[in-house]
Design goal:
It catalyses: L-lysyl-[protein] + O2 + H2O = (S)-2-amino-6-oxohexanoyl-[protein] + H2O2 + NH4(+). The chain is α+β, with helices and mostly antiparallel strands and 789 residues long. 16% of the residues lie in helices and 26% in strands.
Length: 789
């Protein structure tokens, strides 16, 4: 009896407490009157409390409605799990400025009233908003309070933002999905075959939707391949497969026979399986067109609460999906399945997201975000081996690209095989700029990779000592450490990716300054990654543990970040500025001291004679989402008296002249003797200047220019014979500093040298350089450049 009373009180007391705890909204006195009052006195407006101010960063804002561009629209706020609008009463340009900055635009150019972008739905969250223009969020402005409004959606406010992004802005604008997530919040596949439950990703099973505290099924009457296509896309799969319906019929028949037999002993696992067959149908029918990005966007017929046979003549819907190559377990299947070679994602912090780039005439370019939507984004996601699009991002949210912009106003229907099959407009430089580069976030399958690794001891969840989960011969699981020896940024990149924490800012070899957990045993050493792996298990490592510094303080650690830099060389400038100079030895003492000449220079008859130098300018842009800063602090920079400057990085760029078979015939390197902002795009301010021992780095949207006429900006080709070669320039070659994309750090050019003159042709960044281009160059040497008189 006492136990029963305790249980009753335990259930009743929290309910009572929940009902008697007033919320801010509930305690306000409604001011609704039969006659609308257009304005209120300041005394009737509420000022946000400290608790609200502490939550400012959590408020989500989006622009919706139609017709509109990416930088304008109806304002909607996400509050208490629901999207709602703002009434236009007392709205001003000050309000618009606060909202536009929240969305990552520099300012507002105007605002709209009377639902210019169409009427919203649901709540009208704010009314009589009065900002002074300096607030960091709209919720810090005076208003009538959340949900307290006497407006209708005919008075929904909108904003027009200046089409210019705040440099380095991280958060993304949410593009409307047109999906009522109050109906369906989560969808999963429940595998029926025991073996399938152990393998990830789960590619086949019963479709289930989250309902209250459990899961419910969907009736398969009228179920089509289009419905399956939508479900697979939501779960991160690009394609669907045909389900073996006979297998599931036999399985259900066998289960029914087992239940009907008298005195049949069923194991605990068997009982659980049989109980699961008692389906609870939440949705009676689904009628997707196949282009939807969410099941909730399809026409749905929900089962009635009191219905006894919600799926008469049918059973639970089952789907089977085909994963993309990145998520396949079989290497044989990976080889058979190909993704697009002329579309790629760049600048994304996580798998399946990034700036959309397309390849045309052997050169990569971007896509303008005018009319960019989820249907077009989904086509890109699926052709790259991911599911449908989770977000279609505008305004250069994944960094600004370089080079041409090939597409504008892309209008995919959603079923196209490639974005190249969608209608689009060819553009001019007046139509779009790189601040409007389109990007995507794709649905990806759940792989469970984050379950076997964790970070401990860090100050935030983005940093800490790396610990791995292992199982012994008895199946007992325990956590262990990675040896910090040889640990670098490449290995840290894999850890951050595996944990879904974005980029690696740094790989740490000593973690003594982080609080330790109870884990003290080293279990892995000699880890060597390329930086592109999905998990540490895919990297090379020692078969047997070999760690000279086995103390806990020498365990490997990482520092992750949502943003990082991305350096790209201006290839055309190299081609335009290349020339040959015979420079007297008496002018090369400083260069020799910094090891900028070939080895044969040491045997020269100094100060007589000369060295033949291949010279060029290099302009290095930061197109990432964070500043590029040297890993070493200024206290460890090296002063070089001969040139009168500090080196913040030992090697910032590396120059090579290679033969056709890839062997190096001459080389040079450049220390970062003055890493600074030479110039920036309009609206971006310089932050780094070397003068007076200033900070060194390259700001997002800026570039560092090394002119052809400064020391070490060359390759010493004194000993090189005439012939055809490849010029290669690599930025940040040792990957000392984290970047979002190291593949675009290298530039290659075909180089023809006749002993007196030099030609460069087909200069390309990263993987755009091809052997086919090299063959073409031998037939057509290209443009004549400056040469020796």
């Amino acid at each position: 009896m006492q136990l029963a009373w305790s249980l009753l009180l335990g259930l009743w007391l929290p309910c009572c407490l929940a009902q008697t705890t007033p919320s801010n909204a509930a305690t306000r006195t409604p001011t609704r009157t039969p006659t609308r009052t257009p304005t209120r006195t300041p005394s009737s407006l509420s000022t946000p409390s400290a608790s609200v101010q502490s939550q400012t960063a959590q408020l989500k804002v989006r622009l919706s409605g139609y017709p509109r561009k990416h930088n304008e629209g109806r304002v909607e706020l996400f509050h208490q799990g629901e999207w709602g609008t703002i009434c236009d009463d007392d709205f001003s340009i000050h309000n618009a400025n606060v909202l536009c900055r929240h969305l990552g635009f520099v300012s507002a150019t105007g605002w709209t009233h009377s639902a210019k972008y169409g009427k919203g739905q649901g709540k009208i969250w704010l009314d009589n908003v009065q900002c002074n223009g300096g607030e960091k969020s709209i919720e810090l402005c005076k208003s009538r309070g959340w949900g307290n409004s006497d407006c209708t959606h005919d008075e929904d406010a909108g904003v027009v933002c200046k089409d210019e992004r705040i440099p380095g802005f991280v958060d993304s604008n949410v593009i409307e999905t047109q999906a009522d997530e109050n109906k369906i919040e989560e969808v999963r596949l429940r595998p029926v075959v025991a073996m399938s439950r152990r393998k990830l990703p789960i590619t086949e099973g019963v479709v289930e939707v989250r309902h209250r505290d459990g899961w419910a099924q969907i009736c398969d009457l009228g179920w089509t391949i289009k419905n399956t296509h939508v479900v697979c896309g939501m779960l991160g799969f690009p394609h669907e497969r045909k389900v073996n319906k006979n297998f599931y019929k036999r399985l259900r028949k066998r289960a029914a026979e087992t239940l009907s037999r008298p005195k049949v002993t069923v194991s605990a696992g068997g009982r659980l399986y049989l109980e699961r067959q008692k389906n609870h149908f939440r949705i009676h029918s689904v009628a997707c067109s196949g282009t939807e990005v969410h099941l909730a966007a399809c026409p749905l017929e929900f089962s009635k609460a009191n219905a006894t046979s919600a799926c008469r003549g049918g059973t639970a819907a089952v789907v089977s999906c085909m994963p993309g190559p990145l998520f396949m377990q079989s290497n044989g299947m990976k080889k058979k399945t190909r993704t697009s070679s002329n579309v790629r994602l760049k600048g994304g912090a996580r798998v399946g997201e990034g700036r959309v780039e397309v390849l045309k005439d052997n050169e990569w370019g971007t896509v303008c975000d005018d009319r960019w939507n989820l249907q077009s984004a989904s086509v890109v996601c699926r052709e790259l081996g991911f599911g449908s699009a989770k977000e279609a991002l505008t305004g250069g949210r994944m960094g600004q690209g370089m080079g041409p912009i090939y597409m504008n106003e892309v209008k995919c229907l959603g079923q196209e095989k490639s974005i190249w099959n969608c209608p689009f407009k060819n553009i001019t430089s007046e139509d779009c700029q790189h601040v409007e580069d389109a990007a995507v976030r794709c649905n990806v399958p759940h792989m469970g990779l984050e379950d076997s690794i964790r970070l401990t001891g860090g100050r935030t969840r983005y940093e800490g000592r790396v610990e791995l989960l292992r199982s012994d011969a008895n199946g007992t699981q325990s956590w262990g450490l990675i040896c910090g020896e040889t640990w670098s940024t490449k290995e840290a990149m894999v850890v951050c990716r595996q944990l879904g924490l974005g980029y690696a800012n740094q790989g740490v070899q000593e973690t003594w300054y982080w609080d330790s957990s109870n884990v003290t045993e080293m279990i892995l050493s000699g880890v060597k990654c390329t930086g592109r792996e999905m998990s540490l298990s895919q990297c090379q490592h020692h078969k047997a543990l070999s760690c000279q510094k086995a103390a806990v303080k020498f365990a490997a650690g990482v520092i992750c970040s949502d943003t990082t830099s991305d350096l790209v060389l201006d290839a055309p400038l190299v081609q335009q500025t290349v020339y040959i100079e015979d420079r007297p030895l008496h002018m090369l003492y400083c260069a020799a001291e910094e090891d900028c000449l070939s080895k044969s220079a040491a045997k020269a008859n100094w100060p007589y004679g000369h060295r033949r130098l291949l010279r060029f300018s290099s302009q290095i842009h930061n197109i990432g989402r964070a500043d590029f800063k040297p890993k070493a602090g200024r206290h460890s920079w090296v002063w070089h008296a001969c040139h009168g400057h500090y080196h913040s990085m030992d090697i910032f760029t590396h120059y090579d002249l290679m033969s056709a078979n890839g062997s190096r015939v001459a080389e040079g390197h450049k220390a970062s003797f003055c890493l600074e902002d030479s110039d920036c795009h309009e609206g971006v301010s310089k932050r780094y200047e070397c003068a007076n021992f200033g900070d060194q780095g390259i700001t997002v949207g800026c570039w560092d220019l090394y002119r052809h006429d400064i020391d070490c900006q060359w390759i010493d080709i004194t000993d090189v014979r005439p012939g055809n070669y490849i010029l290669q320039i690599v930025i940040n070659p040792n990957q000392e500093v984290s970047e979002s994309d190291f593949t675009n750090n290298a530039m290659k050019c075909n180089c023809k040298y006749d002993g007196h003159r030099v030609w460069l042709h087909n200069c390309h960044i990263g993987d755009a350089f091809s052997e086919e281009a090299e063959r073409r160059f031998e037939k057509y040497p290209g443009q004549l450049n400056n040469h020796i008189p």
